[in-house]
Amino acid sequence: LQRMLSIAVEVDKSPNCSSCKIADVLFPFILNIPLRSQREAFLNTMESHLLRCKLLELLFQHSCDRPTTLPLSLAKILYFLSHSSVMLQYQDETATWQRWDEMLHYLSLLLMSYQNVILAFPLAEHLRSSLNDRMDLIAQKAKPKLQESDDISHLDVQLNIEDFIKRMQQVLGQPFPQQIMEKLCMLQ
């Protein structure tokens, strides 16, 4: 399934457009996966970083108290940190801290996938371009075009992390589970 989804993104003239269409179709199914381990298995094994970005973006938009119109960028990922709530409806009695832990896991996964799409590897940095255009861009050694909202400062990150910690303190109280603090440090 993951290989087929990856190929479906690649065969379109616009991988960005096809990943949006596929994510729109898959999103309701993600919402109905009952167990965290099943959701994580599906998202962690996704071969297409672009499709994973689109799915996680939809998931976070769904969980935001105030959805944003920012394009997917580092600024939008910080926005999700500050405005997302516990995302999915749970059928079992999952502890509140575990819901926040899952949200942080998906936010880290979104950040890593976004970096793979935009910044990280020479062959992957043009994933928003068609396969034919991508080969030309790689041959020309063209640098990926960053968006204005990708220019964030260390202060922006620090302020958003502090805001997130305050929100968690209101919900969880003190002390935070070690697992949450580790994920927060890794994300930062």
TrEMBL record:
This is SIMC1 protein. The gene is Simc1. One of its GO terms (molecular function) is SUMO polymer binding. InterPro entries: ElonginBC-PRC2_ViralRestrict.
